[in-house]
Design brief:
elongated; about 10% strand; about 100 residues; 2 strands; two-stranded antiparallel sheet
Length: about 100
């Protein structure tokens, strides 16, 4: 690598690393959050800042950019229903096309 290109790459790396946050505090053992919340009876175990106040999606996550994400207690039930409906429509369209192409 040419010396000028190496200097430019080093300057770019320094600029990229200076934008990274430097105040990362590792979690303490008493700061651990419950990780297996599946029922509304377990919601009192969750800290108030992790609750959204929405009945259908009571869990809240705020990322480092300030974006709010709401999660339901049992997300697999929504996913299973969606997959079953998509598979049903896919099968319906397959047989519809198959019938019209074989005429």
């Amino acid at each position: 690598m040419a010396p000028a290109a190496a200097a430019a790459a080093a300057a770019t790396n320094e600029a990229n690393t200076s934008a990274l946050p430097t105040t990362h505090v590792p979690p303490q053992p008493d700061d651990e959050l419950p990780s297996n919340i599946q029922h509304a009876s377990q919601l009192p175990l969750v800290p108030q800042e992790c609750l959204s106040g929405i009945d259908s999606r009571p869990l809240l996550h705020v990322d480092e950019r300030g974006n709010h994400f709401h999660y339901s207690l049992q997300p697999m039930s929504y996913s299973v229903c969606f997959i079953l409906i998509v598979e049903l429509l896919e099968r319906f369209s397959f047989y519809g096309y198959y019938y019209t192409l074989t005429l």
